[in-house]
Amino acid sequence: MTFVLAHLSDPHLAPLPPLRLYELVGKRVTGFVNWKRKRETIHRPEVLACIVADLKAQKPDHIAVTGDLVNLALPDEYVTARAWLDALGSPADVTLVPGNHDAYVGSGVAASLAHWGEFMRGDTTTASFPFLRRRGPLALIGVSTSVPSLPFIATGRVGADQLQRLEKILDDCGREGSYRVVLIHHPPTSKPSHYLKRLTDGPQLREVLARHGAELVIHGHNHRRQTVWLDGPNGRIPAIGVPSASEAPPGEHDPAGYNLYCIEGSRGAWRCEVVTRGMAGDGVVELERTELAN
Q1: Bridge partners of 9?
Q2: Does the pTM of the predicted model rise above 0.90?
Q3: Which of 22, 95, 133, 175 shows the greatest Cβ crowding within 10 Å of its Cβ?
């Protein structure tokens, strides 16, 4: 039986709520200028609505969202984002990990947990990272890279404690024969030109994956469709990124889109077909189908 996992990322929900002057401090000042100068025309609510409608029409078994729901980490943005998540699906049917914009300022980490904690919680634990959810043959493993950073910097970090706990989760789920999907916002590898946007402990994460394995890593952050193959203990691991779910074409990056991962089989004989869907003209169409060979 095929299990279908939908994956979207970086909705950057618009428009911004009304701002109070005292809220424009620190990194929010540069972020607001960037929003008005450029990003406001890129991230369009009507595009996101079109993507979500198409996603729901595909009737996936579960939905993964890999962060950057908000833009400036304004208090009202978290409320709006919770309403958007509720419209997307129930906490049982939607799994979320936060992005760097969700921790744009120091209060963002606590705000995201307070408002979205039900979507970022394991089956048997309170909100903590990494968390584990089992859905069908999948082990969904949520890793947070969401940490505050200085202006003009969009780095993320997993941290030694998360990495240590991730090792055990990967081992346990591997012994059970689950299809292990790691959800993370920042990609595990970055180009030198993305130094200020990188995952600072990406090499350490890749070492954990190389030793303990996973079947699939999915992420956002770069606003592009991309696939990178990582080393694993028994073969290569695909790390797949998707565009922003709200980017209007033509934008700076790939137009808005999302992926469907159609997974079937069992340990040692998994099959995963990736269906890429995205904006083309005034609607969403299928762009390609790719079979992953783990």
Answers
A1: 244
A2: yes
A3: 95
